[in-house]
Each structure stands twice: as C-alpha cells, then as structure tokens.
Amino acid sequence: MLRFFVLVLLLANAGYYAWSQGLLLEWGLAPASQSEPQRLAQQIRPEVLRVVGSKTQPTVAVPPVPTGAAQQPVSAPAPAPSPAEAPVAAAPEAGECLQAGVFDEEQAATLRRAVTSLPQGSWTLERTTIAGRWMVYMGRFADTDVLAKKRAELREMSVPYDRPASASLEPGLSLGRFSTEEAAQRGLSNLTAKGVRTARVVQERTDAPGYMLRLPAADSALRAKVEALRAPMAGKALRPCN
Q1: Dihedral over Cα of 187, 189, 192, 198: its sign
Q2: I want to staple 100 with a disulfide (CB 3.0 to 4.6 A). Which of 104, 195, 205, 236 is the partner?
Q3: Are β-strands 124-130 and 208-218 bridged in parallel, bridged antiparallel, or unpaired?
Q4: How crowded is residue 240: how many other Cβ atoms within 10 Å of its Cβ?
Q5: Cα(201)–Cα(182) distance, rounded to whole angstroms?
Q6: Segments in the chain forming alpha helices (H)
Q7: pLDDT band at 44, cuts 50/70/90?
Q8: Does the reported pTM lie above 0.90?
C-alpha cells in the first residue's frame, strides 16, 4: 500500500511539472498566459527614459497613451540654477572713524542742535581741552599814532604782525602765536636778533573746555550730511580719528 502512494505522488509531481512548463499544451493543458503584448505597443519612446541616482532630478513617469492618440514630445525638467548664476547681494559700505574740532562751548552748543537730525548713535561730542596760546606782543600803545609808527618800523624790518584776538590787548600788535610759552620765548629771541625792541611774551588765551565731534563709523552718506552743516561746523573739516 505504501509503495502505491509513493508512486501516485511521483506521477502527480511529474504531471504538474509538465503542465506548468507547457509540455501538455498540445492536449490543451497549460496554465493561463500572464503576458500582455498589447501594453508594449502602447509605450512611447521608451528609449528616452533612464534610471538616475537619488541626488539628481527626479525622473518623470510618462503615462501610456491610448492607441491612435497623437504622441507629444517629452520635455525634461528645467535644471536648477548653478550657484554662480545666483544673484549676489552687495556688501554694505564699511564706515570709517572721522572727527572734527576742537569746538569751544558756544560752537559746540550750535553744533549739537544741528547734528540731532543725524541717525541716533552715529555721532558723539566728546569733551576735551582747548590748549592755551602764547603770543609775542607789543603794546599797549598810548594812542593810534604810536601804533601806526610801530607798524611802519616793523614793515621796514620785514617783520609780519597782526592784531591781538583779545580786546584787552588793544591797541597793540601780535608778532606771532605759539602753543607753548617756551616756543614763544624762542620766537621772541629770533625777533630781538632782527632789531625788534619792547616786545614781550604774554598768554593770549588760557586753557579752556572744548569738544570734538566724532563719527565712529561714517559711510559716504553720513559724511556728506555732516559736511553740509557748514555754519555749525565753524570751518572745521572732518579728518580720520587719531
């Protein structure tokens, strides 16, 4: 009995193999065909399709077109612009530190009112000191006749002169101004060697409070606005910070 069942299994396996491989097709025994040759006829230019990596542009799938419909050309996706073609924003203009001065108390008050129209934080008025000034001086003379006589004598010796800045020294003559007393004394010695008499060194101006206008980061636009403030700037020009 066991041998009979083994023989039946062997015959069944042999029959299934012959059926699945189409060997019994002549007797009408074969599995149903799974091929669909009509789909191959509906393909549109399959040779233009290609498989690409994941880092490139995605491939566009082309749906099948019914038989008889007009075939449209397949357009490839537009390439992304390269970094060199991307617009580059212009770098902001780098500002430079500029300053002007020294301004006295009255000049600084006028300037402070004028620069309030500038952007906040773009300027400062820093307190400093206006150094005293020394002068080689002749005077005070008794009257204008004596003053005229001294002027004539100085012209003959080719010694330049002008009026003192202080009204308390009028009528008198300034023969030179100096930033220190020592420099003024040297100037007096040079004039004495030329024949100048009765001149002496005086302090024309003592140390006084002053102010410096500072623009920490001035671009061309800010500089133009400040330079347009001619009267408040009192003739002081902008220059690089020390």
Answers
A1: positive
A2: 236
A3: antiparallel
A4: 8
A5: 10
A6: 2-20, 37-41, 105-115, 144-156, 181-193, 220-227, 230-233
A7: confident
A8: no
Supply the DSSP symbol for 162: B
Give the tokens for residue 36: 């669909």
Q: CA nearest 134: which of 182, 90, 171?
A: 182
Place of tokens 């007009």: 70
The amino acid present at 71, given as its one-letter code, is Q
Which domains occur in the chain, in start order?
96-130+209-240 (3.30.70.2030), 133-205 (no CATH)
Q: How far apart are CA 174 and CA 182, in angstroms?
A: 17
Instruction: Locate 128 and state its tokens.
Output: 């400093």
Cα separation, 130 vs 167, whole angstroms: 20
